[in-house]
Amino acid sequence: MKRLLVLVVALWVTAFARDRFDAFIDDTTLPVLVHATSPEVRDRNGALLRAYTIDDGLWRMNVSSDQVDPLFFKMLFAYEDKRFHSHKGVDLRATARAAGQALRNGHVVSGASTLTMQVARLLEDGTTGQWSGKLRQMRLALALERQLTKDEIMALYLRLAPYGGNVEGLRAASLIWLGKEPTRLTPAEAALLVALPQAPESRRPDRYPDAARVARNRVLMRMANAGVIPMAAAQSDRLDPAPLGRKQMPQLAPHMADRAIALGPGRHDLTLDRSLQESLEDLARRYMSGRDEHLSVALILADHKSGEILASVGSKDYTDMIGQGFVDMTQAQRSPGSTLKPLVYGLAFDRGLAHPETLILDTPVQFGTYAPQNFDGAYRGELPVRRALQLSLNIPVIRLTEALGPAHLMAALERAGIEPGLQGGAPGLALALGGVGVTLEEMVQLYAALARGGEALPLRWRADQYGGEDAARRILSPASAWQVGNILADVAPPASAGPPGRVAYKTGTSYGHRDAWALGWTGRHVAGVWIGRPDGTPVPGAFGGALASPLLFEVLGRAEARLEPLAPPPPETLLVSRAQLPEPLQRFGPREPVPTLQLTFPPDGALLTATGGGVPVKLRGGLPPYTLLADGAVLATGLRRPEFLAPVLGPGFTTLSVIDAQGASGRVSIELR
Hints:
This protein is α+β, with helices and mostly antiparallel strands. It has four domains: 30 residues; 207 residues, Penicillin binding protein transpeptidase fold (Orthogonal Bundle), CATH 1.10.3810.10; 191 residues, Beta-lactamase (3-Layer(aba) Sandwich), CATH 3.40.710.10; 75 residues, Immunoglobulin-like, CATH 2.60.40.1220. 35% of the residues lie in helices and 16% in strands. It has a five-stranded antiparallel sheet, with helices on both faces. A hairpin with a 3-residue loop joins strand 13 and strand 14. Helix 8 packs across helix 9 and helix 9 runs antiparallel to helix 10. The longest helix has 25 residues. The protein is elongated and about 120 Å long. Keywords: Carboxypeptidase, Glycosyltransferase, Hydrolase, Multifunctional enzyme, Protease, Signal, Transferase. InterPro entries: Beta-lactam/transpept-like, Glyco_trans_51, Glycosyltr_51/Transpeptidase, Lysozyme-like_dom_sf, PBP_1c, PBP_C, PBP_transglycosylase, PCN-bd_Tpept. Pathway: Cell wall biogenesis; peptidoglycan biosynthesis. Its EC number is 2.4.99.28. One of its GO terms (molecular function) is peptidoglycan glycosyltransferase activity.
């Protein structure tokens, strides 16, 4: 009876102690379990484009178990905590073994810290050298095991384990020390990631590569002896050198990434394609190498069917201070030069004002005080609208704009999703020649509309942005859009054009050579290129055709090994010769009288000194091309500019005559000495 009473009391004391112990553990206040992680920007397939440190300058990146090579977990558990999945936070067998070894040897031989205890230490930023710290970790580890699952505890370890310097967590360590995601690891790489958290500062690969290598090899041999990896693999990987320094975190699409991060922290998934983005950033750097260091470049490549931006390069180098590489030139408002002309022609086709085969005058004209001139100062008389667009002549497009009304052109731009920067009051005729501020992204969106058969769809760069057909707006009929593309596809490509196939493209140069543009599309992609100085100062000699168009074709070539064919004409497209057109469409507007040809210089009877360069001749009126004669002999034909040099004939009296395309003539008699 007495023994039974003692047994009952013992059981009661044990139960009371256990209840008190359970209450002690349950009363443990858990530290913060949610920690800030590096904001990330990823591409359409989830690949990392760019990441940012958190506020205290740490690299701490979110990672899930399925993003980690299973080999890492096998090695981690075998090396650090064999019974992780069975113990309740403290491994009593390991603790007893460590205590026995310490008593027998007089010093600590092996540790008994479980992974849960390591997480407890990391959560409280505690030490392991004092018994009080160790006991606190045990209590917190037991509490963690009661409130969290094993997977949740392991997630904390993967996120918080120290890896030297400002590197925390497995994924940040893998990217910085190995230059890769931890999804697939070699035995040597996995062993290094297991070894570093034990002594993160004294084994930092960038400072102590030998120590890192020794620690890694120790893990490799233990894993081989434990049967986790083959001995042959361990022996082979031991010969690999440890990383000698830090790898650079991915820094792709920096301008686009900054735009995403400005929306808020966390993970941002973009429509960009990492491989294309990396390829085009490299292309931009290579293309601009050796040019004026103050120049910048911007590129955009998009899928015109979906409206998704696949690559966006805001400058040649984000870190370049001289060229202001930090400025995202895809978003800067600049004058588009002649790149708005295709829209003018498309609107004219829709209004029934013209057809690609309609004849239009390229002769001097004045609208009030505005007298437009062609870029080269020459006039070409009457020519087809098709040819006028291909030659990018100013006077024909101004004639069409005047007939349309500049406000109609502005409304079309706004329907295309462009927010034009217009200084002053109402838009004028110069709008058609680039007298407005637009961004490269907006211009690519406009050209995507031309490629889509006249439907403007907002470009998308965020994966969660709304797209879809409901957002589309029609700015041109399918037939007019196709006619514009067909005309532009017949423009000769630059000499350095890449893969075979037709590209409908247009170049432009803004006033004062400040901006060089090239925009174009294939059956699948649309792309835009801008080159200039971010501060808006002139770039002498910069032309869109010479500077930007070769890069445009390289961009499209990087996207398509063979350019996808352009769309066929819609059934309603009027494909006829000029003679088959209705009479009002055969010639644009009323036939205007051509001003009488006048030879304004040299004046009749002038005495001039002969020079090696020739005699300057200036004309007014008439219809080019012009023919130049001296004393009845033909000196030159096919002259289209109203100013030119007549070859020197030697001293004496000479009669110069000029005849225009309609047979009108002018003549002067001069004396050369």
